[in-house]
């Protein structure tokens, strides 16, 4: 089959702890360029995630229901190995500010060194999401701040559940 006849699969990798509206914005933009987008959730234990991998996948699935041609999976090990397994042609990454660039540039070049056939495509989210990050969302939510405009509904609900659980655990632990 000729290249142009193949379904063009792009992989959007990340930790997504949790997914935000900024990530959703990037997925929407990627779908304008590629026929299929696979959201690939990295276990990333070095970040000590708040949500385990199944919770993160489940939230992304629910938050991307509006899109056809989006699938959500996890991948062990190197992204580039997973790219080959999925026969994907591009890695999607969001660039929010110049400060993202150095780290992203390093990763893109390392991935290219590992497989010269894979391109990294950088997309900019809507400017209303440029200050967003998953860590900021977690911090604001942990102090009872309002995050519902910034994350999908399912994420707001799950974050509220986590906060309630933490509160009940801390009260039961008191002597
Ligand atoms: N909207 C909101 N937030 C965004 C965003 C957007 N559009 N784009 C990025 N971010 C935030 C994320 O929420 C995250 O915030 P946090 O640090 O507060 O959690 C941060 O920007 C960047 O994280 P993320 O996009 O999740 O990427 P990452 O840097 O955690 O993940 C991997 C990087 C998973 C892609 C990379 O580590 C990887 O490929 N791992 C597999 C192993 C491998 O192949 N390593 C070699 C790589 S060269």
Describe the structure.
- With 175 residues, the chain is of the alpha/beta class.
- It has a single domain, classed as Rossmann fold (3-Layer(aba) Sandwich), CATH 3.40.50.620.
- It is 45% helix and 15% strand.
- The chain contains 6 helices and 5 strands, in the order βαβαβαβαβαα.
- It has helices at residues 21-33, 53-63, 79-85, 98-114, 134-142, 153-173; strands at 9-14, 36-41, 70-74, 90-94, 119-123.
- A 5-stranded parallel beta sheet has the order 3-2-1-4-5, sandwiched between helices.
- β1, α1 (21-33) and β2 form a beta-alpha-beta unit.
- It is globular.
- The relative contact order is 0.18.
- The model has no long low-confidence stretch (mean pLDDT 92).
- The protein binds coenzyme A (COA).
- Coenzyme A (COA) is lined by residues 13-17, 20, 22-23, 26, 42, 44, 78-79, 94, 96, 107, 110-111, 125, 129, 132-135.
- Residues 13-17, 20, 22-23, 26, 42, 44, 78-79, 94, 96, 107, 110-111, 125, 129, 132-135 line the site of coenzyme A.
Order of helices and strands: EHEHEHEHEHH
In which order are the strands of the major sheet placed?
3-2-1-4-5
Major sheet attributes: 5 strands, parallel
| Structure summary, number of beta strands | 5
The H-level CATH homologous superfamily, spelled out, is HUPs
Number of domains: 1
Q: What overall geometry do the principal axes of the alpha carbons give?
A: globular
Structure class: alpha/beta
CATH overall fold name: Rossmann fold
Topology:
Blueprint lengths: L8 E6 L6 H13 L2 E6 L11 H11 L6 E5 L4 H7 L4 E5 L3 H17 L4 E5 L10 H9 L10 H21 L2
Parallel strand pairs: 1-2, 1-4, 2-3, 4-5
The chain binds coenzyme A (COA).
């Amino acid at each position: 089959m000729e290249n142009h006849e193949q379904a063009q699969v792009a992989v959007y990798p990340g930790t997504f702890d949790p997914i935000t509206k900024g990530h959703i914005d990037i997925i929407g933009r990627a779908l304008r360029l590629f026929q299929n987008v696979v959201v690939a959730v990295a276990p990333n234990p070095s970040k000590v995630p708040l949500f385990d991998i199944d919770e993160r996948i489940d939230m992304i699935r629910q938050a991307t229901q509006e899109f056809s041609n989006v699938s959500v999976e996890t991948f062990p090990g190197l992204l580039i190995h997973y790219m080959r397994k999925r026969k994907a042609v591009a890695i999607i990454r969001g660039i929010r500010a110049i400060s993202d660039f150095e780290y992203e540039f390093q990763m893109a070049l390392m991935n290219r060194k590992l497989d010269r056939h894979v391109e990294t495509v950088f997309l900019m989210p809507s400017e209303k999401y440029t200050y967003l990050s998953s860590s900021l969302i977690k911090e604001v939510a942990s102090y009872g701040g309002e995050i519902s405009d910034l994350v999908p509904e399912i994420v707001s609900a799950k974050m509220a559940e986590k906060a309630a659980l933490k509160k009940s655990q801390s009260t039961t632990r008191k002597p």
